[in-house]
Amino acid sequence: MEPGVWNRRLSEDVFAAQRTEVLAQWPTGASIDLDEAVDRHHAMPPSKNVSRAVASALGEGRTLIQPRGGVATVDGQIELLRGLQEAGADLLPTTLDSYTRNCRFTEAQEGLRASLEQGRSLLNGFPVVNHGVDGCRRVVDSVELPLVGRPGAPDARLAAEVALAAGYSDFEGGPLDYFFAYTKDTRPEHVIAWWQYIYRLAGYYESCGVPIHQEQYGSITGTLVPPSLALAVVTVEAIMAAEQGVRHVGLGYGQEGCLVQDVAALRVYPQVARRYLDRLGYAHVRLGTVMNQWMGAFPSDEAAAMGVIGWGAVTAAFGHATEVITKSPHEAEGIPTIKANAEGIRCTRQLLNMLRHQAFPDSELLAQEMEIIDREASAVLDRILDFGDGDVAAGVVRAIDAGVLEIPFSPSKHNRGRILPARDAMGAVRLLDFGNLPFPDDVKEFHRSRILCRGARDGKAADYHMVIEDVYAISHGHL
Amino acid sequence: MEPGVWNRRLSEDVFAAQRTEVLAQWPTGASIDLDEAVDRHHAMPPSKNVSRAVASALGEGRTLIQPRGGVATVDGQIELLRGLQEAGADLLPTTLDSYTRNCRFTEAQEGLRASLEQGRSLLNGFPVVNHGVDGCRRVVDSVELPLVGRPGAPDARLAAEVALAAGYSDFEGGPLDYFFAYTKDTRPEHVIAWWQYIYRLAGYYESCGVPIHQEQYGSITGTLVPPSLALAVVTVEAIMAAEQGVRHVGLGYGQEGCLVQDVAALRVYPQVARRYLDRLGYAHVRLGTVMNQWMGAFPSDEAAAMGVIGWGAVTAAFGHATEVITKSPHEAEGIPTIKANAEGIRCTRQLLNMLRHQAFPDSELLAQEMEIIDREASAVLDRILDFGDGDVAAGVVRAIDAGVLEIPFSPSKHNRGRILPARDAMGAVRLLDFGNLPFPDDVKEFHRSRILCRGARDGKAADYHMVIEDVYAISHGHL
Amino acid sequence: MATSRPYTLILGVIGADVHVIGITILAHALREAGFNVVNLGIMVSQEEFIAAAIEVDADALLVSSLYGHGEIDAEGLRDHCREAGIGDILMYLGGNLVVGKHDFKEVESKFRDMGFDRVFPPGTLPDDVLAWLNSDLASRAARVEETP
Amino acid sequence: MATSRPYTLILGVIGADVHVIGITILAHALREAGFNVVNLGIMVSQEEFIAAAIEVDADALLVSSLYGHGEIDAEGLRDHCREAGIGDILMYLGGNLVVGKHDFKEVESKFRDMGFDRVFPPGTLPDDVLAWLNSDLASRAARVEETP
Ligand code: B12
Ligand code: B12
Question: Could you tell me which of A20, B261, B282, C132 has the fewest CB atoms within 10 Å of its CB?
Answer without folding.
Answer: A20
